[in-house]
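Thread: quick sanity check before group meeting

JM: Hey all, I'm pulling together slides for Thursday and realized we never actually wrote out the predicted structure for the chain we discussed last week. Dropping the sequence here so it's in one place. If anyone has concerns about the input, flag it before I start.
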Amino acid sequence: MARQTRQQRRDRRAQAADGAPRPAQRQVTRAVAQATPEPAHSAPRGIPGSGGRRFVAESWAELKKVEWPRQQQVIAGTAVVLVACILVGIYLWGLDQVFKRLVEHVLLK
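JM (edit): ok, ran it. Output follows.
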């Protein structure tokens, strides 16, 4: 079973804030969970090769829940990364020039 989408969680919170009764939460005690162990051999075996199909189906369901960024957000994020790379590159180049002269004039003489 797929998890709730972000919108479903927001709707549930909004209903709870409006004074609507909250859904009852499931409570499982440790004694009950320990009292009913499932044997390892009772799990139904699937059709060979269906695991990949299930994985793709669940992955597709998760991708539908993703809140993808808008074009403006992508452009802004890309610009920030490029500027940061340029600044770090200039900083490292400057340090390289300083240490190059230090090595040439102090350590090699």
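AS: nice. The two ends are 72 Å apart (CA to CA). DSSP finds four helices and no strands in the chain.
JM: adding both to the slides.
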